[in-house]
Amino acid sequence: MVKLTAELIEQSAQYTNPVRDRELDLRGYKIPVIENLGATLDQFDTIDLSDNDIRKLDGFPLLKRLKSLLVNNNRVARISDTLAESIQNLETLVLSNNSMQELGDLDSLGAMKSLTYLSLLRNPVTTKKHYRLYIVFKIPQLRVLDFQRIKQKEREAASKMFKGKKGQERAQDIGKRSKTFVPGEKLVEKTGPSKEDVELIKNAIANAKTLDEVERLNQMLKTGHIPGKEIRRLRGEIVEEEDDMEGDEWNVISNGNKKRIYLLV
């Protein structure tokens, strides 16, 4: 795989194509991630990213001049929800032979008001029921889908199928999004302790008398672990919950003095 760098962009073929558009040829480098396209200085009408290893369509800077984007033969399974903000004047998007799975994964293309040509041939999503009508409904400005002109009858059928409350429910049911994780996406953050729990642990750390005690409490805070009825050794002393308290009580022995930390529940 080759990283898409400013140097690679500078060294790649740049020419005027048969339709008199300035084109940047980035085919066949097995690029995994779209990045550093700011180095193009927005000087191209067409960018060809075919035959790479791209999995998510994102990472574009603001490219007002870009009109055509060719991403054939990749592994694209996701499209950024904010793609329209970066390439707002895009007219042609070719995503043939990729890995788009669900109709809902294409919803963000509806925000691309200049998009008139779209190809999703040889993507799993094309086998979904009502695929073509759903796309026509979600991207009303589209004129050609999969190299076939959209007919007025299709627009009317799409409008009829998805209009009204029942139509909206049908669209939501059909337009589910895939749940497959795409490398490069952020992982869902784990739920940590509540603010009250964090404050209790911080106070315990502030009142600690030895480095060992501080380190143990610090590790508890990092891992989000809040001790319950039984608390393991803290400075070598066993801390247990007292049943007669309204909540959990920590008894910490420090220099012969007993300190109490309450976890009210």
Summarize the structure.
With 265 residues, the chain is α/β, with parallel strands linked by helices. 25% of the residues lie in helices and 19% in strands.
Annotate the secondary structure layout.
Layout: H1 6-11, E1 13-16, E2 22-25, E3 46-48, E4 56-57, E5 68-70, E6 78-79, H2 83-86, E7 92-94, E8 117-119, H3 131-138, E9 144-145, E10 148-149, H4 152-162, H5 164-174, H6 195-207, H7 211-223, E11 230-234, E12 237-240, E13 248-254, E14 257-263
Parallel strand pairs: 2-3, 3-5, 4-6, 5-7, 7-8, 8-9
Antiparallel strand pairs: 1-2, 9-10, 11-12, 13-14
Helix pairs in contact: 3-4, 6-7
Overall, the morphology is flat
At CATH's second level, what is the architecture of the largest domain?
Alpha-Beta Horseshoe
The CATH superfamily label of the largest domain reads: Ribonuclease Inhibitor
Instruction: Summarize the main sheet.
Output: 8 strands, mixed
> What fraction of residues sit in β-strands?
15-25%
Distance between the terminal alpha carbons, to the nearest Å? 53 Å
Q: What share of the residues lie within helices?
A: 10-25%
Provide structural commentary.
- Residues 187-191 and 227-265 have low confidence and may be disordered.
- This protein has helices at residues 6-11, 83-86, 131-138, 152-162, 164-174, 195-207, 211-223, and strands at residues 13-16, 22-25, 46-48, 56-57, 68-70, 78-79, 92-94, 117-119, 144-145, 148-149, 230-234, 237-240, 248-254, 257-263.
- It has an 8-stranded mixed sheet. Strands 4-6 form a two-stranded parallel ribbon. The chain has a two-stranded antiparallel ribbon with strand order 11-12.
- It is α/β, with parallel strands linked by helices.
- The protein has 2 domains: 6-175, Leucine-rich repeat, LRR (right-handed beta-alpha superhelix); 195-233, no CATH class.
- It starts with 5 loop residues before the first helix and ends with a strand.
- The protein contains 7 helices and 14 strands.
- 25% of the residues are buried.
- One of its GO terms (biological process) is mRNA splicing, via spliceosome.
- This is SNRPA1.
- Pfam families: LRR_9.
- Keywords: Leucine-rich repeat, Nucleus, Repeat.
- It is found in: Nucleus.
